[in-house]
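Hi X.,

You mentioned you wanted examples for the new student's onboarding notes, showing what a folding record looks like when two proteins sit in one file. Here is a clean example. The first protein comes first, with its sequence line followed by its structure tokens.
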Amino acid sequence: MKICWFNEDRLGVIVDGALRDVSAALTVLPARSYPAYVGDLLIAHLDAVRSEIERVLPQAPVVDLQSVRLGSPVAQTGKIIGVPVNYQKHVEEANADVATFTGRYTGGILEQGLFIKASSSLIGCSEAVRLTMPDRLTHHELELGVIIGKKTRNVSASEALGCIAGYAIALDMTVRGPEDRSLRKSLDTYSVLGPWLVTADEIADPQALNMKLTVNGETRQETNTSQMILYIAEQIEWASRFYTLYPGDIIMTGTCEGVGPVVAGDLMHAEIEGVGAMDVRVLSAEA
């Protein structure tokens, strides 16, 4: 099932390429209370919501997909976890251009460790990436986004894929410079997720997906998730040693070679096999 948020507060599902408004299914969610639930309420109750979507779908109105604004398919993430240097050819391009990528980080994934992006940096594909540091290089980084579906701690790799609610296309936008990753990757709008959440049951093997990113029609990044150094199940196992993972937490699973700069006016097009495709504009902060 492909589930999305559109026009701020409407719940949608994509059926045969058409958007259906299934906001009526939200009635199965428990009432909000204080203190707030940790994590994303819809993701935590995804099975119940999916059942209700099936029930209301015959009466759900069709909405023009091209006329709506798609928000992040995770409305309330607790944290965004980044996995660095997870494709060998990206490691090689970074090592070959220390002037751009800096020599601050050395060693492999396990030596460099995970990093956290601010949840406030998260947007959907209909919003634009806004360049708030125009004097610095901003690079695109195409990644498979993994959305955690249940509270998870110290899970084994053999059980880790069972903790996934679904997948989405992720753009880990990055300002180049000497500061810590968590600062340079946490600017507002620098985490893009979309166009929708594809539930885990629709992806037979997340380690066999083709993915591609173009900028203004020029191919920049193209790979298959089989080329990851640390596979998704291993990432979840590793992350859950340090953090309790909650429904709606997002893991950005690493980028391949071909990362490059974007400037105001650019149009990024990203696609991942089995997930979908999305266009994301780049604007100046003032636009």
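Then the second protein repeats the pattern, sequence line and then tokens:
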Amino acid sequence: MTVTGTDIVELDRIAVHEALRVVELAENTDWDRDTPCAGWNLRRLVAHMTAQHLGFAAAARGAGLEATHWQEPRDLDEPARVHRAAATAVLAAFAEPGVKEREFALPELGGTFPGRLAVRFHLVDYTVHAWDVAAALGVRLELSDDVLGAALATARRVPDDPAVRGPGNAFAPALDVPGGSGPLDEILRLLGRDPHRWGLTLTP
């Protein structure tokens, strides 16, 4: 499926809704499953996703430097419900007029960024984390060519620099990308995931 005539905020909304869909497929017995995020089970991954939504929502409104907005929730008994509330908050913040022209303070990325670029960072984050959840649950991810194309363009811009890659940093070290890889495969490998290890069929 291709969505035409859309901007980055709309593409991000599509990725967030796909992440919501796969998170809400999880049953009570699934939260301890391993995920492609090393050392994180599904519960911890969704807690991280929740915190990132809330942090980006705060950044969109000028409060990104306040560390409390980026903290993972302590209430992890209902991860999907807490995650949905956070996703609703960030989508509302990104839908405000002029959001792409604002400045976002993003402490994990070490600076302040134009809103248009910050939303792109959020888009690639939720493309990848939606896949992380799908991989943990063994389900297929469904994203449009437009979303994957925008996420890939951003993933290709992430520096191959130890200051931003590796344990404790925002991104994992990149893996080699075989020739002929599709866009999702390339996104995942550029951000340190080996999709074939999880045995899933990728979207085209």
